[in-house]
Specification:
There is one protein chain. This protein is α/β, with parallel strands linked by helices. The chain is built from eight helices and 19 strands. The radius of gyration is 21 Å and the shape is globular. The relative contact order is 0.17.
Length: 392
């Protein structure tokens, strides 16, 4: 575990009781859902969710409610090709549900889009069902996502449901009915992620027309330089087989592509689903500076002048330097949570307070930090504050 942290403070004032360190463990369950509005259509769903301990059918953690993402798989692909997605998103406090329908060689894109929308509504009902493990655990915020065919189907989903709050797609494919046409009806916040070397769904013919069609007041297009279509997910034989027949090939590894796509996806989703202004600022900062991508966008997620700093507060830390744990002593405000960022603003770790901190708390420092400068973003009852920390 890390050896030492020295805090250079111009800090915050806050509250305390105790804090639950993130990330959450990943729980998993399978739901057999039925859509009565479509002749009792069967919609089996694999759901991954925040848990205190990892495993199948374990309880959803704590007393919080978590936002839901409904994620659509690619053509002839299955939900387990997206382990990278649930492992990236669930530990930060998001439920991710994967409908397993339309996996054949002749899928109905329209029905798949309706399935994605249905899962959003069904998970909301799970949160109100006293017999469900998700009872009182489902927040009203949600998003539809998808890769390839599932990305195109996500546009269809949002066009048929007013319940969906935002959309984020990975290398989205055109569908029948048209995802590009469906995009022209959407006004919700939207993120379109593309691969610069995608030869299966080239951005110029697919994701760029989708982005241009969107009527969203706040939309973003992120093209990852050198990225491919199939590397958005895990290694998958059928996707790789189709991609092997076209050019250009990827010029970055799958691991690097995953790091880059989640570097943008995570703060974008945290801003929209968790109302995290700091994450919005991280996304905006990365969009302006990250040389691994090309970005177009129509809005700032959280302008700096909207993030008011807390005044008249103090926080002291001990011991200095710190080893495995860091103690915070707080006054004159309430801490809601803390994020650890790299010096460049990349999200690394999150501590979540089950009860706002008003006196003192202990942070378990994450393992594996290399020596250097980091940023600690503290979300308080009166605004946000950033302080610099140095690992020795």
């Amino acid at each position: 575990m890390s050896k030492a942290l020295t805090f250079i403070t111009f800090i915050i004032g806050f509250s305390a009781i105790h804090l639950t360190a993130q990330p959450y463990a990943v729980g998993h369950t399978t739901l057999s859902l039925t859509d009565a509005s479509r002749s009792n259509r069967s919609v089996p769903v694999e759901v991954y969710y925040p848990a205190a301990t990892a495993g199948d059918n374990v309880p959803v953690t704590g007393n919080k409610k978590f936002p839901v993402i409904s994620f659509g798989h690619g053509f002839v692909m299955t939900w387990d090709a997206y382990k990278n997605v649930w492992n990236a998103l669930v530990p930060g406090g998001i439920i991710v549900a994967f409908p397993k329908t339309e996996g054949s060689a002749s899928p109905s894109h329209g029905e798949f889009g309706k399935d994605l929308a249905f899962v959003i509504a069904a998970m909301d009902l799970q949160g109100k069902n006293a017999t469900s493990i998700f009872y009182n655990k489902v927040d009203t915020m949600n998003c539809v996502m998808g890769h390839s065919m599932g990305g195109g189907a996500a546009f269809i989903a949002t066009s048929v449901s007013s319940q969906i709050k935002c959309i984020a797609t990975l290398a989205a494919a055109e569908t029948n009915p048209s995802a590009i046409k469906a995009a022209s009806t959407l006004k919700i916040p939207s993120l379109v992620v593309a691969g610069g070397n995608d030869c299966v769904t080239p951005p110029s013919a697919y994701q760029i027309p989708m982005y241009d069609s969107l009527k969203s007041a706040c939309k973003a297009y992120v093209s990852i330089n050198g990225a491919s279509h199939c590397q958005m997910g895990e290694d998958n034989f059928l996707c790789n087989f189709g991609e092997a027949t076209c050019n250009p090939k990827p010029t970055i590894s799958r691991a690097v592509q995953h790091q880059t796509q989640f570097r943008f996806l995570i703060p974008w989703l945290r801003f929209h689903l968790l109302n995290d202004c700091r994450s919005g600022q991280t996304f905006d900062s990365l969009a302006a500076k990250d040389v691994a991508v090309s970005v177009r966008k129509t809005c700032e997620l959280c302008p700096v002048n909207q993030a008011t700093r807390i005044s008249s507060f103090t926080v002291s830390t001990f011991p200095i330097p710190a080893d495995d744990i860091l103690n915070l002593s707080v006054a004159k405000a309430a801490i809601m949570g803390c994020d650890l960022l790299s010096a460049a603003g990349k999200y690394l770790y999150h501590w979540d307070f089950t009860v706002p901190v008003t006196q003192s708390t202990t942070l378990d420092l994450p393992q594996g930090l290399t020596p250097g400068i980091y940023l600690l973003h503290i979300n308080g009852s009166g605004g946000d504050l950033v302080m610099r920390i140095v690992k020795r």
